[in-house]
Amino acid sequence: MPDHPIVDLMDDIAKTHPGLERLAAIAAIAVKAKQCLIVVSPPGCGKSTITNWISEQRQDAYIKDSLTRASLKQYETMWQDFTGVMLFDDVGKIDTD
Q1: What predicted TM-score, i.e. pTM, was given to this entire model?
Q2: Listed residue (4, 91, 86) closest to 41, CA to CA
Q3: Given a cut of 80, is residue 53 above it in pLDDT?
C-alpha cells in the first residue's frame, strides 16, 4: 500500500530540514482545511522556512514579514473577501504601523 501524500511530504522535508517534518505536515493540513494555524516558538526553529515553503506551494498566498495590531485596520477592506492563504512571519503587539 503506498504512503499517504502527507507521509511523502514529511519524508521530503526531513531530508533537507530535519525536525520540521511534523510542523510542515500540520501546516499543510491547516492550509488545506482553511484553518488558522499559529506557530509560536523561539527564533531559529523553522517558522520562516515553513512560511516560505507554504507560499511557494500556494499561488493564492499573501505573505508579509510582520504584522502589528495597529496595522490590522489598514488591511480590513483588502481581507474582507479574501479566500487565499495569509502568511505572517512575525506578529507583534506593538501599536505602530
Answers
A1: 0.70
A2: 91
A3: yes
